[in-house]
Design brief:
Number of helices of chain B: 10
Helix content of chain A: 25-40%
Helix content of chain B: 40-55%
CATH class of one domain in chain A: Alpha Beta
Number of domains of chain B: 1
Shape of chain A: globular
CATH class of chain B: Alpha Beta
CATH superfamily of chain B: P-loop containing nucleotide triphosphate hydrolases
Oligomer: heterodimer
CATH superfamily of one domain in chain A: P-loop containing nucleotide triphosphate hydrolases
Distance between the termini of chain B: 54 Å
Structural class of chain B: alpha/beta
CATH topology of chain B: Rossmann fold
Radius of gyration of chain B: 19 Å
Order of helices and strands of chain B: HEEEHEEHEHHHEHEHEEHH
Number of strands of chain A: 9
Strand order of the largest sheet of chain A: 6-7-8-3-9
Strand order of the largest sheet of chain B: 6-7-8-3-9-10
Order of helices and strands of chain A: EEEHEEHEHHHEHEHE
Number of strands of chain B: 10
CATH architecture of chain B: 3-Layer(aba) Sandwich
CATH architecture of one domain in chain A: 3-Layer(aba) Sandwich
Strand content of chain A: 25-35%
Radius of gyration of chain A: 18 Å
Chain lengths: 235, 272
């Protein structure tokens, strides 16, 4: 089967113009691929650039060099060079992302936050809301919270809203930035099951998991990012 | 795929490929002083573009140039009319230009008093733009006005009150209803939350966000507030001294700014 995403020669350097233009190289020559139906896990210590890789793959960070080739609408797109409009289209249809923290929007209910990606893809609201409710109950978020904006929720409750929002669509590629970090054992198991179902559905996943049990349960391959460290950098 | 379906798909693609508005090499000089210079960008249907920068960076000059309120010194601004044709805005006849301003476009001013008629009722403020495009039936006008007041969260019992009697936040919501009632395709907003308290601001932003998504509007919004840009816009244009210093996806510009000035702007945001 063709890979869903191919990364080659990817490099990232931060230039701090307010600090006299010093350069902070994060990685160079990163290369790996994601296969449909498999979950790859980024491994390596904190600060090695795992989150930076996810952010470049979502278009949130600019890549300084290299390619991120993605299968999108039957064509191959280089996300590292794509126009903003193309990146937005990729996010809507091809690449999903569960961030570490939920960015809350004032006054929007948890249920609507979860349903939004489906509504954006043209699914009618009642159906999208029903799907959102199914996911939230599966993740054991008490129904009395559904109609509230998540600003006042606990870290674990916000994280579950975030996971539901990321998993509700059928994006062929899904990026996961420590989705289980603030969850209890029961909900961690739910997320592990949900990842397994995504694999069965043919989704290519890439994640960061600090919890060794979760990592062991979901990972098909480990991508060691210390191999992408720029020369001369202490990791 | 059969031939007809393939053709439809091609049509879809080609219409998608056409921007709604194309700005090329637009400059405005006030004598020797630069208002804005060599600005280029496109906006597509359903997109929200934020123009950010500090006071005097040229963002309002640019907004006025592209909304035909201020003729640029050089450059072109092309707009896709409802018949699909791209037209140079400064070559339009007076009737065509009026059609755009009254129907196809909206303009939300920072100060609601600049966009409302303060001495006629709220209902008439909303109904007026409909009447300008030929609606005459009083009952229908009133029903539409009531519906729009409800959508911007103004009670139906306030329909006969003048905006003079409204709070700042209500006036701003009324101005938005007045602009959106004709189903415009493109809305310009100049610091729409500028003079409002934070809690009122949050409510207005959320309302605008909902309406933009629901109606598929294209919006060009000028703001100096990066939180407003983050919440509402897809793309962002950063201006300094009349020039665009950086342009791209809103979240990328805020999370990984490249230009020295954008880095300064982002690092100046106060954390709450």
């Amino acid at each position: 089967m063709n890979p869903a995403l191919i990364v080659s020669d990817l490099a990232k350097t931060f230039t701090m113009h307010l600090r006299g233009g010093i350069e902070l190289p994060v990685m160079t020559g990163a290369a790996f691929l994601l296969q449909p139906g498999q979950c790859a896990v980024l491994g390596g210590p904190s600060g090695a650039g795992k989150s930076s890789i996810l952010k470049m793959l979502y278009g949130n960070y600019a890549a300084n060099a290299g390619q991120i080739l993605v299968q999108h609408r039957g064509r191959e797109i280089d996300l590292a060079r794509a126009e903003p409009r193309t990146i937005l289209e990729l996010r809507r249809e091809t690449i999903g992302y569960v961030s570490q923290f939920l960015r809350v929007v004032p006054r929007v209910s948890a249920l609507d936050i979860v349903a939004e990606p489906l509504v954006e893809r043209g699914i009618d609201r009642p159906q999208a809301t029903r799907r959102a409710g199914d996911l939230l109950s599966r993740l054991n978020l008490p129904e009395r919270l559904w109609s509230l904006p998540p600003a006042t929720f606990s870290g674990g409750e916000q994280q579950r809203v975030n996971i539901a929002r990321g998993f509700i669509t059928d994006h062929p590629i899904l990026l996961l930035d420590e989705p289980t970090a603030s969850l209890d054992a029961v909900n961690r198991t739910v997320v592990v099951d949900m990842i397994a179902e995504k694999k069965v559905a043919g989704v290519a996943l890439l994640g960061i998991f600090h919890d060794a049990d979760v990592r062991g349960a979901v990972a098909d391959t480990i991508i060691d990012v210390t191999g992408f460290a720029p020369r001369g950098k202490d990791v | 795929m059969n031939a007809a379906a393939a053709q439809i798909e091609n049509l879809d693609r080609s219409s998608e490929a056409l921007p709604l508005l194309s700005v090329r090499s637009v400059s405005k000089a006030y004598g020797a002083r630069i208002g804005c210079t060599e600005v280029n960008f496109d906006i597509w249907p359903g997109e929200v573009l934020a123009i950010v920068g500090e006071s005097g960076s040229g963002k309002t000059t640019l907004l006025n140039c592209i909304s035909t309120r201020l003729e640029p010194t050089s450059g072109t601004i092309a707009y896709r009319m409802r018949d699909g044709e791209m037209r140079d805005l400064y070559q339009l006849g007076e009737a065509e230009r009026r059609f755009l301003l009254r129907t196809d476009w909206g303009f939300v001013h920072q100060n609601p008093a600049d966009g409302l008629r303060m001495t006629v009722s709220a209902g008439a403020n909303v109904g007026e733009r409909l009447m300008a495009v030929g609606h005459r039936h009083y009952g229908e006008l009133r029903a539409t006005a009531t519906d729009w007041l409800g959508r911007v969260e103004i009670g139906a019992d306030r329909i006969d009150d003048q905006p003079r009697a409204f709070s700042g936040g209500m006036r701003q919501r009324l101005q938005i209803a007045r602009n959106l009632v004709t189903a415009p395709r493109l809305v310009f907003m100049d610091e729409p939350t500028g003079g409002l308290d934070v809690s009122v601001q949050a409510r207005l932003l959320d309302l605008v966000r909902g309406l933009v998504n629901e109606l598929g509007l294209s919006v060009i919004i000028v703001t100096h507030d990066l939180a407003v840009a983050r919440l509402l816009s897809h793309r962002m244009l950063v201006m300094k001294d009349g020039r665009v210093v950086e342009h791209g996806l809103t979240d990328r510009l805020l999370d990984d700014p490249q230009a020295p000035y954008t880095q300064l702007l982002v690092s100046s945001i106060l954390q709450v």
